[in-house]
Specification:
alpha+beta; MutS, DNA mismatch repair protein, domain I; Alpha-Beta Plaits; 4 domains; four-stranded antiparallel sheet
């Protein structure tokens, strides 16, 4: 998706359209830019930049605090569109995914036609634009999707890989960052084409085990499959705050919302989970994970929430520092038909009926149409 959070704000607030918008935290604190609109990017603003720095570059920008519940709602609409084209959807974040359309070509047409239909359907469903890259593997498709933003469509044919890759700066290769880029520059390797002169042995001598991976990527080789949720080992949902959060009531509301979101994804994919994980990262990037296991696999929001809330309460009693990131995940999956009912258990108890009703309402009217009371504590004000 193109400038996802900022684009949603401009969609919902017409007065922001055409103006530079920065979604994120307070510039007077430790706020960072979560998303910069394309109007703001022209001034050098970008995500993960301190908000104070962004405002110095673009004083006229409008700062908008994140509304994660709204972004999640639109994200669900986008992913619903994805699954109209293929069940093989691997989520990377709320606004990005890999789709394997190999099995859809016979039914829906060639890749370029499918890509155009996908973009059109997203625009009609959400009012937003998406940029799509089409290629034979994940690495090439991801690079292609970034080439002509916003609203781009780039197709890399099998015989056009070299023409596509060679001019690209080597900084675009996965794994090349601030630490490794100077090493390439010292060897006068500035583009993918420049890197072709290194042999596999030279790559391995320079970068060890990572060297073989670099050698492959320079040539557009990437054999990783698309792994959809149903084949994944876990499903999770997490947020990073623009400023550290010490309000535990606020954090509790956030993880309830995350638990609700994860449970909905389980039901959507016909899965149950036995283990829940609470992930918390503090300001110094110390990360803890706490796990609990249910007696039986479940997809019920209330059952999962009971486990998550106990984990949170145990963490809370330790007088912990403020939180930078928090997330909820589930694992140890089984299918919905794999559960053995207890002798005196009612298979149609209230919790399942409630989940089914909530799912029906949200599928028809959107995620914000109905929410649990614990989720209403202004959780849309602090996440990024």
């Amino acid at each position: 998706m193109d400038g996802f959070f900022a684009a949603i704000e401009q969609l919902d607030r017409p007065e922001l359209r055409g103006n530079p918008v920065l979604v994120g935290g307070d510039p007077k604190g430790r706020g960072v830019v979560s998303t910069a609109s394309y109007e703001a990017r022209r001034f050098g603003c970008h995500s993960a930049m301190p908000m104070a720095s962004a405002i110095r570059l673009c004083p006229q920008a409008v700062i908008v605090r994140p509304r994660m519940a709204r972004y999640s709602e639109v994200s669900q609409q986008v992913f619903d569109v994805f699954e109209q084209f293929t069940p093989l959807v691997e989520s990377l974040s709320v606004d990005e995914a890999f789709l394997d359309i190999t099995g859809s070509i016979r039914l829906l047409g060639p890749p370029d036609v499918i890509a155009a239909k996908l973009k059109q359907e997203i625009r009609e469903r959400t009012g937003l634009t998406a940029s799509v890259g089409v290629a034979s593997n994940k690495f090439l498709a991801k690079l292609a999707s970034d080439q002509r933003k916003p609203d781009g469509l780039v197709i890399v044919s099998q015989d056009g890989v070299r023409d596509f890759l060679n001019p690209l700066p080597i900084s675009r290769m996965w794994g090349v960052g601030k630490a490794t880029l100077p090493r390439f520059e010292r060897m006068a390797i500035h583009t993918f084409g420049d890197a072709l002169r290194l042999s596999l042995t030279e790559w391995q001598k320079l970068f060890g085990q990572q060297g073989e991976r670099f050698w492959q990527l320079v040539r557009g080789i990437d054999d990783r499959p698309v792994v959809p949720d149903r084949a994944a080992k876990s499903i999770s949902h997490e947020v990073t705050f623009p400023i550290d959060v010490s309000d535990h009531d606020h954090l509790r509301a956030v993880i309830l919302d995350q638990t609700d979101h994860v449970a909905h994804r389980l039901r959507r994919h016909g899965l149950r989970a036995r283990t829940v994980t609470l992930k918390i990262r503090s300001a110094d990037f110390t990360t803890i994970t706490r796990r609990a296991t249910a007696q039986d696999p479940t997809d019920e929001t209330d059952v999962l929430w009971q486990l998550v809330s106990k984990l949170f309460a145990a963490w809370e009693r330790q007088n912990p520092p403020p939180v930078r990131l928090i997330g909820v995940g589930v694992s140890q999956f089984s299918g919905c038909g794999d559960r053995q009912l207890g002798l005196f258990e009612n298979p149609n108890h209230d919790s399942q009926a409630l989940d089914q009703s909530v799912d029906t309402i949200r599928d028809r009217f959107g995620d914000q149409a109905i929410r649990r009371g614990g989720q209403i504590r202004d959780i849309d004000q602090g996440e990024a």
